[in-house]
Design a protein that fits this description.
30 helices, 6 domains, alpha/beta, five-stranded parallel sheet, Rossmann fold, globular, single chain, four-stranded mixed sheet, about 800 residues
């Protein structure tokens, strides 16, 4: 019914049945349908509904959905694309041994990471497996039970969302009467992550419970939903504080395998992941069989002979083989479709054949829903899905890797008449379980794709994603810039300009924009107009001068006006940046192997010397004497060649002379490329430091770039201290390959598996050597460039 009637048609149907739709439960279309069926079922009038449906839509076999069938409102034994919930533990089968293994890991330690591919059933294992087992203490597959007092523990489960610290604070204050306490706890955790353990103890004391089992499902949302790096650092620090040392807290996270490497960018997570993990592999054929037949037989449904074997064979679980990783959502969707087409209490082979092959059923069902939408709703549904997907890795230009993105529905509403079409499309997609609705912490309705299996097993959506991957990335970048702009209090330096604004306007037409995007780009255009108007005013003031002078100044100003966002202005900004960039020249360096008295500080140079290369030593070059400061980096942003750093200090007018920080490797390389320079190699960076006394150290505090806290023998200032600095060297599988492995600075060649070398300690960290993903901005990382020609 949800796909065959709109809301107005449903209201007319109610009136034809003699029912006032206003007396039914208010809400979206799916709620109205459910209220209508319940109203008629209580009065034994469901046959009247079937007859009315035949009058309205005679081409549909409505009797198939009612005749000789169990009650319409019987609970489905298969959840489809969504995960099993805690209340569905009675129909959760196939992972008994994994539940036992997870419980055993929790007996052995305070932290467990459940890691698996998308679609391996991590959420179901945590919600329908672990939580009920912990609460009810049944005998597990290995013959043991959960800890003796586990049924008295407090169990709390949440997903990180876009505000992981807020969710953690809410977990600590859920029993308190007002939201003020939650806001206060969140603010404290930002400043003092270690206080998390204190708040956990207070929570247990209030409830008089012995321990807390904290479950963080879909942990990858920390990277796909969260935005501010400093809050990610605080959140991971708070989690570590909960389980490092004696603690009444046990912590479990569910993590998609693709994001496992991202965790190592955070020291707190790196320490936690050194502990034993639970790697969730594919189900065996025997376990898959239990997952198929168990839920149905528990509820009195019967399988037609041969159907289960056909399903398993189509899943690739023939003989001793296990199905392919990620097959669970495909199976779950096919089972739900079979159950929807059941005959009496029997699940039939004909019903399965009507869905198509198990690997095609999802795509066919999604196509059916989409094709049944009116044309205006099809257009907004396509745009909706493209906004609910995040590109997390596009190093493989053929496929890409995608993650779901949860978005507030109000933030997606267009300004024109298509808003009604979007509302109707979302209702239909939710009723057909292609999207999931929820609420964020602010009480706004949210929407997200039902499962990531849609991205690869709905060919139509996969095609949309492939066609629009760069536009999706551009919109992601725009969204991150908007958030930085809003955090800065709408500071003008965070607005787009130059080529960046022009490119965004070209690829994102106004009709495709939503509220925050329209506001940001309108402010960027206003800034561009104000710059032109300022130049026009300067021209007007010259009209009192002599004719020759006026003509000369008019010509100069006119050029500036016409090219305010063009090449001449960009060249002007670049010239200003170069004029403020002092260089230190480093002569050719021949490095005998016996000169390596400080092998830790000069790790690359010493390894190069020991290997006997390169021939001729290190070629001469020039390195910027000082780190790049906020003022010079701002010129690159104004020119449209750089994006805004993720640092609150960047917009502080008192910190313009401080080193730019909070930039990733891509941003650092873009700045150097804009100047006609490049990031240093690790050999060049160490050559600039060469000759410095081993005992020379820097004060670990942040200050202006020209405040000397350390000077190298070459004359370069603050190679140690202030901020750590990106290089373009990276480590490969060969431990010393960073001597020759160099990144070319292009985004397409930098993947999440290519950690760049970062050199120099900082105001926060004393480590002078580290590796980091070049796509991730870190609060203490900055940049200085090198030139081989200056």
């Amino acid at each position: 019914m949800a796909t065959r009637f709109n809301v107005e048609e449903l209201r007319l149907l109610c009136q034809r049945l003699g029912i006032d739709p206003e007396e039914l439960r208010p809400g979206p279309k799916s709620v109205l349908i459910l209220a209508l069926i319940q109203h008629l079922q209580r009065r034994d009038r469901l046959p009247d509904l079937i007859r009315a449906l035949y009058v309205e839509r005679p081409q549909i076999d409505w009797a198939f959905y009612y005749s000789d069938r169990p009650p319409v409102l019987a609970r489905p034994p298969f959840p489809g694309l969504r995960a099993f919930t805690t209340d569905e533990s009675d129909i959760y089968f196939g992972r008994r041994s994994d539940v036992a293994r997870l419980v055993q890991r929790l007996r052995e330690g305070l932290f467990v990471a459940v890691v698996g591919v998308s679609g391996s059933g991590k959420s179901s294992l945590l919600q329908a497996g672990l939580i009920p087992a912990w609460r009810d203490r049944p005998i597990l597959a290995d013959g043991t039970r959960p800890p003796e007092d586990s049924d008295a523990w407090l169990v709390s489960s949440f997903v990180p969302t876009a505000d992981p610290l807020g969710q953690l604070a809410l977990a600590f204050t859920r029993d308190l009467p007002t939201t003020r306490e939650t806001a206060d706890v969140r603010a404290h955790l930002v400043e003092a992550p270690d206080a998390a353990l204190l708040y956990a103890r207070k929570l247990l004391d209030r409830g008089r419970q012995p321990r807390l089992l904290l479950i963080l499902d879909q942990f990858e949302e920390l990277f796909t939903q969260g935005r501010e790096e400093s809050e990610r650092q605080a959140f991971t620090g708070a989690l570590a504080a909960l389980v490092e040392g004696p603690s009444p807290v046990s912590l479990v996270i569910g993590l998609r395998d693709h994001f496992f490497g991202r965790c190592f960018e955070y020291p707190a997570l790196r320490r936690l992941l050194e502990r034993p993990q639970l790697l969730l592999g594919p189900l065996s054929r025997e376990d898959f069989t239990q997952a198929i037949i168990g839920p149905a037989e528990r509820n009195g449904w019967h399988w037609e002979p041969g159907l289960v074997e056909t399903l398993l064979d189509d899943l690739g679980a023939s003989g001793a083989r296990s199905p392919e990783p990620g097959a669970l959502p495909l199976m779950a969707h096919a089972l739900r479709e079979i159950w929807n087409r059941r005959q009496g209490d029997k699940l039939t082979l004909a019903a399965y054949q009507a869905t198509g092959n198990v690997k095609e059923a999802l795509g066919r069902a999604a196509d059916r829903v989409y094709d049944d939408l009116p044309a205006d709703q099809q257009a907004v549904a396509r745009a909706l899905f493209l906004r609910l997907v995040r590109v997390v890795d596009s190093s493989d230009s053929r496929t890409g890797v995608y993650a779901r993105q949860r978005v507030a529905l109000s933030a997606l509403m267009p300004a024109d008449e298509s808003a009604a079409a979007l509302t109707a499309a979302v209702e239909t997609l939710a009723a057909e379980r292609l999207v999931t609705l929820g609420q964020d912490a602010a009480g706004r309705e949210t929407v997200e794709p039902a499962h990531e299996a849609l991205f690869s097993h709905w060919p139509r959506l996969a095609g949309w994603l492939a066609e629009n991957r760069e536009t999706i990335r551009l919109r992601q970048t725009l969204g991150e810039q908007i958030q930085a702009w809003e955090r800065s209090g709408h500071h003008a330096d965070y607005l787009y300009g130059g080529e960046q604004l022009a490119e965004t306007e070209r690829l994102l037409p106004g009709a495709t924009l939503v509220g925050p995007e329209r506001d940001f780009l309108a402010a960027s255009r206003a800034k561009r107009r104000s710059e032109i108007e300022r130049l026009e005013r300067e021209l007007a003031t010259q009209r009192q001068l002599t004719r020759r002078t006026r003509l000369f100044l008019a010509a100069v100003s006119l050029i500036a006006i016409v090219l305010a966002a063009g090449p001449l202005q960009r060249s002007y900004w670049r010239g200003r940046a170069l004029s403020g960039s002092e260089l230190t020249h480093i002569p050719a360096l021949a490095l005998p192997a016996d000169d390596c008295a400080d092998a830790e500080r000069f790790r690359a140079l010493c390894a190069t010397a020991a290997a006997g290369g390169p021939d001729g030593g290190i070629a001469p070059f020039a390195i910027e004497t000082y780190e790049v400061d906020n003022a010079r980096y701002t010129l690159c942003v104004r020119a449209g060649a750089c994006t805004t750093p993720n640092s609150p200090l960047y917009a502080d007018p008192q910190r313009v002379a401080y080193p730019v920080q909070g930039i990733n490797g891509l941003q650092a390389a873009a700045y150097c490329r804009w100047l006609g320079r490049q990031l240093p190699t690790v050999l060049q960076w160490e050559a600039a430091l060469w000759g410095t006394e081993p005992s020379a150290t820097a004060r670990h505090e942040l200050g202006p770039v020209d405040r000397v806290v350390h000077t190298a023998a070459s004359g370069a200032v603050n190679l140690l201290g202030n901020v750590s600095e990106w290089t373009r060297s990276y480590e490969t599988e060969e431990p010393r390959e960073y001597r020759t492995a160099l990144w070319d600075g292009a985004a397409v060649s930098l993947s999440f598996t290519t950690p760049l070398v970062v050199r120099g300690d900082s105001w926060l960290n004393s480590a002078t050597w580290s590796y980091f993903n070049g796509r991730v901005d870190v609060e203490t990382f900055g940049v200085r460039c090198v030139s081989v020609s200056d």
